[in-house]
Amino acid sequence: MAFNPIEAQKYLKGMQYPASKQDVIDHAKSNDAPQEMIDDLESDTQDQFENPGEVQKAFSKS
Which of 14-18, 45-49, 58-62 has the lowest mean pLDDT? Predict the structure, then answer.
């Protein structure tokens, strides 16, 4: 099940872009993101995110 991309912004607040996938995952974890969100990010094939919109697309592909 895909994580809600709108809710993701709460866990990515303050994220600086561009960012590597691992940086986004680490930032989300530091903001207590749910495991479902982390799993969706880890399974995405993109290695770099240029902006929050690209992160949201990762959730819609899941």
Answer: 58-62
